Amino acid sequence: MSRPSGLDGLTPTNLATLYRKAADWPLPGKVALGCGVACLVMALGNALLLEPSREQLRQQQAREVVLAGQVSQKSMQVAEVDALERQLQDARATFAGLLRELPVDTQMPGLLEDITRLGATHGLVFDTIKLLDELPQALYVELPVQVGVTGRYHDLAGFVSGLGGLSRAVTVQSLALHAGQPRLHLEFVAKTYRYTPQGDQDLPLQAGDADTPVPHFVYDANALRDPFQPPYRQPERPAGKPAAAPDPNRLRGVLEGKTFEQLQMVGTLSRGSQVFALLHDGARVHRLAVGDYLGPDHGRITLIDDTHIELAELFPDGEGAWLERSRTLPLTVNS
């Protein structure tokens, strides 16, 4: 027969007797009982008190991750807002600059003068220049001008191209070109625009005054033939870029009576930040600055260097217009 274990022999009466005599237990038994009670209390405390707190902690940690993502997203949005504000300011400044290109009523005579002066620069003859009725639009008013001019093909093309470079916005529409011998007749409608403020009337005042130059197409007739003339009648065009005619009322300088070959650069002279070129005309030395003139071809000094000076000269192209070319006067060594 198997021997019964000690635990099987325990009865409720024996357990009660054992409990009453707990004070007489040996020390190892007391320690074991204390550890068991402590473990039981910790297990119950963990289940009843700490587990809800742990669940709340896990929820807060998950919320922290969500909030961190939101903070990162908001930071990116703030950076985008700063960039958008700068873009808005740039757009306002650009819009204000465009508005300044739209003439007001009092500026129309000046615009007509600019058009006629541009035509005269290209050697054109005006047959018609007439203000037409205004055409109101939603945000602006169109101010059309009927123009009729006569001239050579390249001069007409340079004139139309030059309209885009005026200080006020001008568009060219309804072009009609009539062939003639030897000149052509061109009719078109040049439209400029006047702004009519709506809700943002103070917008131009809020923008800066600095304008960004807007590049425009410049017609260059070099190496281009006149399609209205046969090849054997194509004129030889000198090298140079189109330029405005020289001012006939400008006071001529002393060295403009000398040829380019009669002048020698003998050195430079500095006074503060300004640099002067020293030129010898065979009799005496002259001091010139940037912007001064010399030579018979309206040569204007554009750059002064220790080794040379650069000039922009004007000369007629033989067809009523003026061209500009660059020229260099080097330093005369051992002068």
Describe the protein:
Helices cover 33% and strands 27% of the residues. It is α+β, with helices and mostly antiparallel strands. It has 3 domains: 22-99; 105-196, 2-Layer Sandwich (Alpha-Beta Plaits), CATH 3.30.70.60; 241-330, SH3 type barrels. Strands 1, 2, 3, 4 and 5 form a 5-stranded antiparallel beta sheet that branches. A 5-stranded antiparallel beta sheet has the order 6-13-12-11-10, with no helix packed on it. A 3-stranded antiparallel beta sheet has the order 7-8-9, with no helix packed on it. α3 packs antiparallel against α4 (153-163). The longest helix is centred in the N-terminal third of the chain and has 74 residues, at 27-100.
CATH architecture label name of the largest domain: 2-Layer Sandwich
H/E element string?
A: HHHEEEHEEHEEEEEEEE
Query: How much helix, percentage-wise, in residues?
Result: 25-40%
CATH class term of the largest domain: Alpha Beta
User: Count of helices?
Assistant: 5
- CATH homologous superfamily caption of the largest domain: Ribosomal protein S6/Translation elongation factor EF1B
Number of strands: 13
Mean pLDDT: 78
CA-based gyration radius:
46 Å
Major beta-sheet overview? 5 strands, antiparallel
Strand content: 25-35%
CATH topology of the largest domain: Alpha-Beta Plaits
Q: CA-to-CA gap between the ends? A: 139 Å
Structural class: alpha+beta
Low-confidence stretches: 202-211
Principal-axis shape equals: elongated
For the record, the count of structural domains works out to 3
